[in-house]
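User: Second chain of the day. Same drill as before.
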Amino acid sequence: MSNITAERLSPLGEGVSITRHSSGGFTLLHVGWVPMLAAVLMSGIGVLAIGTTEPSLAKRQLVFGVFGMLMAAVMCFPSARQIARAAWPLYAISLALLVFVLIPGTPEWLVRPKNGARRWISLGLFEFQPSEIAKLAVVLALAQWMRPGSELRRLGGFVMPFLLAAPPMLLILIEPDLGTSLMLGPAVLAMVLAAGARKRHVAMLVVGLLALAPLSYPFLKSHQRERVDALFAQLKGDDRYARDIGFQADRAMTLAGSGGFAGAGLEHARALVRHNGLPEEHNDMIFAVVCCRWGFLGGLATWLVGLLYAFGALLVALMARDPFSRLVATGIAGTFAAQLVINTGMTVGVLPVTGVTLPFVSYGGSSLVALWIGTGLLFNLAMRRPRGNERLGAVA
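Assistant: Same format as last time:
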């Protein structure tokens, strides 16, 4: 394949020259294998960890994982242009589904509330969570919108991506699902930075959010305020919430510490988890099970594999030859990294419990399949090269 010209990417590749190829095609040796390998490893850790206390759910998770891999393979076929064209329709569909789960009077066999939340659509053999697809839809839609010419470096243009992400964030918050709603913020912030937003605009936003965060406390729901109170009490060594709203966090920390350096082993860990009564041990609190069974080494290995996935996604972004691909990879990396940090942070007691799952590891078909679809997109964008007549710098 012969090289012919070099162009500057704007605004993503401002000041950076890249080589353009005379014909399209793909290569099997690319950085997309990095997040793919990390996804396989994390999925394996998840099946084994879930099997510690829920062997039947571990088998279901394995089935979800295989289906997710098949979906990832399917995502390798469309071109970046075709993916971009599907971005806004997918965004609209995800909004419609998020509205659908909130419609009062919907039959419970179709939308069944759980713990007071309306997040799932029953499809018979499994339940589908629209918010998982919405996270990916927002990334694709914003990548399509933030093309050259979107005036992102102006204040009005800088605000627009956050306004576009606001409707799904609000709908997910109403379900209620505060944790998933918060996942969209880091993704949007990472994308606007990668798209060339002015650093002073980003600094203004971050400082403003940090200043407003304490003021939001009175507007939180009672159980959310209690979780914040429990976190601060826990950090001060006050255990008054340990048998109440702070029970889950207290049990998670206890079990994570019980694994010691090398872990308690399968049978001992299974007994510890069951006798301590950790809620959602196969889902939100799976990292505590990982640390209990495999100890500090297991927790560290899980974190390193997670960082490998995020690093691989960023490599895909850096190697991308058009802004759309670069922004999609950046958004996926931002969402994944935020989810990894928040889940493990709440498990070890440095962040409040928000119901955020550990990507690829926590039990859940919708989450796992959506993550594999995102991984398939990363693989697709990494292996494809633009055609000689394809305009770099935008995907229409």
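Residues 3-385 form one domain.

User: Great, on to the next one.
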